[in-house]
Amino acid sequence: MRPFSYTRAQTVQAAVQALASDPQAVLLAGGTNLIDLMKYEVERPGAIIDINRLPLNFIDDLPDGGIRIGALVTNSSVAHDERVRTRYPLLASAILAGASPQLRNAATTGGNLVQRTRCYYFYDPATPCNKRQPGSGCAAIGGVNRIHAILGASDSCIAVHPSDMCVALAALGATIEVEGPAGRRDIAFSDFHRLPGDRPELDNTLQSGELVVAIRLEPNHFAVHHTYLKLRDRLSYAFALVSVAVAVELSNDRLVDVRVALGGVAHKPWRDRLVEAEFAGVVADEEAFQKLAERLLSGAKGHGGNHFKIPLAAKAIVRALKQATSGRLQDQAAKSVQ
Ligand SMILES: Cc1cc2nc3c(=O)[nH]c(=O)nc-3n(C[C@H](O)[C@H](O)[C@H](O)COP(=O)(O)OP(=O)(O)OC[C@H]3O[C@@H](n4cnc5c(N)ncnc54)[C@H](O)[C@@H]3O)c2cc1C
Ligand code: SF4
Fold first, then answer.
1. Mutate which of 40, 122, 199, 239 to test ligand 2's pocket (most atoms within 8 Å of Cβ)?
2. Domain CATH code at residue 246
3. Which H or E run contains 114?
């Protein structure tokens, strides 16, 4: 690890100012990703701004029936909050599918949003990686790419976003509140994470000096018909090869509103609202689910080691839609797919 300065910010404005005034500065929340990256010398910050004392550890009800979750609320606290469990059970379930209880006790909402990819080459400074060192190449293209993207990748980077929480937030259509030198602004969840294009070093659309303050969720009708299905190499303590967050509103046997977000397949949680809209009013049966999966994956492309993800994702989408529409949810403690 290299030497760095350490500051504990007492106000959001002070954190913004410290971040904006030093291009070498980074924010420290739970530290479960940042400290690993520093140990591997992938991140070499000159200054650490510890934000753990900021007043961002709250879960508030909103007047419209929605909820606002501060950036410093731990993943465990979100998943076990009674309001989240009853009104946004998809979010609670996705969080509980991730990491381990110890990690979830330390990891924060803001840190989970901004965590970096788990591409093996990104963590190995001896290999070329456009995300870690722009212009150096991509060792995963033509290399070992079993865990990599099948949708939205580019010739510069085929990494995936590793979060479970974010896949549920994509399906629920969250809003992210950020504060920066120009003040506060909202970012729609679908605009927060980026596809790699020719700038894979940028994971998200935060501007210089901006930090995440909170996420907001609107009231919804998805408390009954939802599921988070995560397929991985081990049943715990492993990132998703493919995950699916489904939220459905049903009227009799027809889909009124169907949302399907995919994790482990792209540089951002993957959702296609145009495809979802095609299925509004359609009878919720296996034939429709298979068509929806085909449409969502129509642009999917493998890179050698990860071709298997295309049929795996298709089956996972159909299975998740069956679970959600039948109200038979995936139990995150279960040792098998339900
Ligand atoms: C062994 C292991 C297994 C894991 N398994 C999973 C898994 O299965 N599923 C899953 O989803 N995750 C998994 N994780 C990742 C874990 O969820 C993240 O490390 C965690 O959510 C990051 O949160 P943090 O508060 O510790 O962030 P930190 O490590 O403190 O920060 C991470 C990044 O976010 C930035 N940041 C932090 N807060 C803010 C903010 N408010 N605004 C702007 N930027 C901010 C930091 O500067 C840093 O760049 C795993 C991690 C480990 C170590
Ligand atoms: S896939 Fe992206 S993160 Fe992985 S080596 Fe290539 S450029 Fe780096």
1. 122
2. 3.30.390.50
3. helix 109-114
